[in-house]
TrEMBL record:
Gene3D superfamilies: Single-stranded right-handed beta-helix, Pectin lyase-like. SUPFAM superfamilies: Pectin lyase-like (SSF51126). This is Right handed beta helix domain-containing protein. It comes from the Bacteria.
Length: 697
């Protein structure tokens, strides 16, 4: 249908200052965008807005109403400065009424045949002739497992050798070869690797707070050795003898229901789960590397302004493993996000969903300000949830600040890149992270700061308040916490959060962790329980305040500190520590410069109180805890994690101020609150892993 821009304007405007455009799954981007003649895509709506503005000079509010249903995205929605609005006239992409539009960056696959082994097979012509590859696959709404060995647990490395090729100038060698040797039992997992799979097979090695992913240069079955190359191992965190490793992406590893493999000839294999049939299965391979791109230039005054996404769902975003694999990267800060934003002000996501990604969900990069993500559901993520700022510091308009993340559910991430975190704040300041539910990640829940040591940092005045952070770490990585901080962070407040079920493979698994150079941070009114090595740990930092918190039931130590420095490290005041096993304090407590008093300690499992190898009275001789008490704080049922007070008489003696335990986490209608509860199978699996890790089974 042919129409003029002016005719379109009169048809779709409620009045001369408002424009409404409709999009529907059965639409056509050649239509007029009316409710009975909708467009077919977000890109079609964006292009119509551009044309309308150009032809009419329209400057009023614009709303794109999107009907419910499934949309296949053929390209990312890219917004530039011309696509924005103003405070009085925003551009809104919004679900129509209570309908649910779902945008997929994937391609549905069909035509599977079942071979004599019961394995599904599909010849992909795009892979055969155009070398199309993908690193994630979704079957019936679930992330399938890329064929791996062993299926459970890990192989263990017998020996590691690094041959330096290019030294470079950094602490780590610039380029090196690595030779991993295995004993006969461990190497048996690789005996079946076929020559045609050598270009595809990858290793994933887990070491402390990092993991390394590499393709293989050589597999020597006679010597039980694997050769790879890449960056030299960081001397502060190398892969060592006894290290844990798995191998993936080869045909011989395809041996368990739910696994898949795409060979070099373009044949896709999948072992179905019980009850799955190829004729009615939905199999989706992600195609697009991004789903939404917002590209402004803040430094030159060309930001994307006042755009809101509301009620939309985005899924199936691909992250391709690069030919070099993945070098160790804390917080998986080297990968991108399904939704990438830079140079943007007031670009908001409200009541949205992002899921089934190979990478992070959403990233406000450089030059972003005064934007909000609220009541959105981010889950089933290959990487992390929401990232703010960058690993590089920026000044002026390119410094990201004043982002609000409020009342969101951010769960089940790190599925491809386990070092990813729920919320990451790099070089970014003045952000609010509040009332979010963050759970089921393998590394850290919230990470703030990106400077190691006391060099100047611009990650200041961030507020992490009223969040519920739980089931973090599992037993995969180490040196991690529910809330982790780095560098000089004056004005940062971490308060009124409920943190629990934090565990690590070896050391670590803390609730609150002030790491290298953390400075000027206040941690108060937090409830932290069921951790591995402490509700609180400070590696090193300056002038931090830890007050009026409840730290309960850590398994090894209730609180730790490490490095002795000449300045005041932290104050530890008016806290309650309740436990039934392990030491009260562990580390450099007698030597570190701290002020520690008016705390309460209570062992619900007996009468032993280990203050870094000393009794309470011996500990007090160092001048600390002079007015602190060993006393029952009178919680109602602490063994079952009910930390309400049956009486406040005892806590008044240390000046403890009760705080509202019901104010943390998400809020709203019952459906939203129920959505934040992890399935019971995940809770049970976490507890089982903790028992095994602690040697209790």
């Amino acid at each position: 249908m042919h129409f003029t821009p002016m005719a379109f304007a009169s048809a779709n405007q409620v009045n001369k200052n408002e424009l409404t455009i409709y999009v529907a799954p059965n639409g056509d981007d050649k239509n007029e965008g009316k409710i009975d003649q909708p467009l077919a895509s977000l890109i079609g709506a964006r292009d119509m807005i551009r044309k309308h503005k150009k032809n009419t000079g329209h400057s009023g509010p614009i709303t794109v109403l999107i009907r419910g249903g499934a949309y296949q995205m053929l390209a990312p929605l890219e917004l530039n400065p011309e696509d924005g609005g103003s405070q009085e006239a925003p551009v809104v992409y919004k679900a129509y009424q209570d309908e649910k539009p779902v945008f997929s960056g994937g391609k549905k696959l069909s035509g599977f045949k079942v071979n004599e082994l019961g394995i599904w097979e599909l010849e992909l012509h795009e892979s055969q002739y155009y070398k199309w590859r993908f690193d994630q696959l979704y079957v019936n709404g679930k992330r399938a497992t890329l064929a791996r060995t062993p299926n459970e647990g890990f192989m263990h490395i017998a020996a590691v050798k690094q041959n330096d090729w290019i030294k470079g100038t950094g602490r780590a060698v610039e380029k090196a070869q690595h030779v991993f040797s295995f004993d006969e039992e461990n190497f048996s997992h690789l005996k079946g690797v076929a020559d045609e799979d050598l270009d595809n097979i990858r290793l994933r090695a887990y070491h402390k707070w990092n993991f390394t992913m590499r393709y293989l240069d050589k597999l020597d079955k006679d010597s039980a050795q694997v050769y790879t190359s890449g960056g030299g191992m960081p001397p502060w965190n190398p892969i060592k003898e006894g290290g844990r490793i798995v191998f993936e992406n080869f045909a011989a590893a395809l041996d368990e229901a739910g696994e898949w493999y795409l060979n070099s000839k373009g044949t896709l294999y999948y072992i179905p789960l019980p009850g799955e049939q190829p004729e009615d299965a939905e199999v989706i391979a992600p195609v697009l590397d991004n789903l939404v791109l917002v590209k402004g230039d803040a430094a030159n005054g060309e930001s994307v302004e006042h755009v809101r996404f509301e009620g939309l769902s985005f899924m199936h975003c691909h992250y391709a493993v690069p030919p070099s694999g993945s070098e160790p990267s804390q917080a998986a800060a080297m990968i991108n996000a399904a939704v990438m934003i830079e140079g943007a002000n007031h670009v908001d996501f409200v009541n949205c969903e992002i899921s089934k990604t190979g990478q992070h969900a959403l990233w406000y990069g450089k030059g972003c300000h005064y934007s909000t993500v609220e009541r959105s559901y981010l889950h089933d993520l290959g990487g992390g949830g929401i990232y703010l700022g960058e690993t590089k510091a920026h000044e002026g308009a390119n410094h990201t600040s004043h982002i609000k993340l409020h009342n969101n559910i951010i769960q089940t991430g790190g599925l491809e890149y386990p070092t990813a975190v729920g919320v990451w704040v790099g070089h970014s300041s003045d952000n609010e992270i509040s009332n979010n539910d963050i759970g089921n990640f393998y590394y850290t829940g919230i990470s703030v700061g990106w400077v190691w040591g006391y060099a100047e940092s611009n990650a200041k005045r961030n507020k992490i308040v009223n969040n519920h952070i739980h089931h973090i770490g599992w037993t995969l990585l180490s040196d991690m916490a529910a809330v982790y901080t780095l560098g000089k962070s004056e004005g940062t407040v971490i308060s009124n959060n409920i943190v629990h079920h934090v565990h690590a493979y070896s050391y670590g698994g803390w609730g609150l962790y002030t790491d290298e150079g953390s400075t000027g941070i206040v941690m108060e009114n937090n409830l932290v329980y069921s951790t591995k090595t402490g509700g609180f740990h400070q590696h090193y930092g300056a002038n931090n305040t830890i007050r009026n918190n409840i730290f309960a039931y850590a398994k090894m130590y209730q609180a730790q500190c490490t490095r002795v420095e000449e300045h005041r490290s932290f104050d530890f005041m008016n806290n309650i520590i309740v436990f039934d096993e392990g030491a009260v304090l562990q580390g450099a407590w007698e030597k570190i410069d701290i002020a520690m008093d008016n705390n309460m300690y209570w062992n619900t499992g007996g009468e032993e109180y280990d203050f870094n190898g000393k009794s309470f009275s011996e500990w007090q001789k160092f001048g600390q805890d002079q007015h602190s008490r060993i006393m029952n704080p009178r919680f109602k049922d602490p063994e079952n994690f009910n930390f309400e007070f049956s009486s406040k008489k005892a806590i008044r003696r240390i000046g403890f101020e009760p705080f509202d335990l019901d104010a943390s986490g998400v809020y709203g209608n019952e459906t939203w609150i129920e959505k934040a509860k992890l399935p019971s199978r995940i809770l049970a699996a976490f507890d089982e892993q903790v028992k095994l890790n602690m040697g209790k089974e």
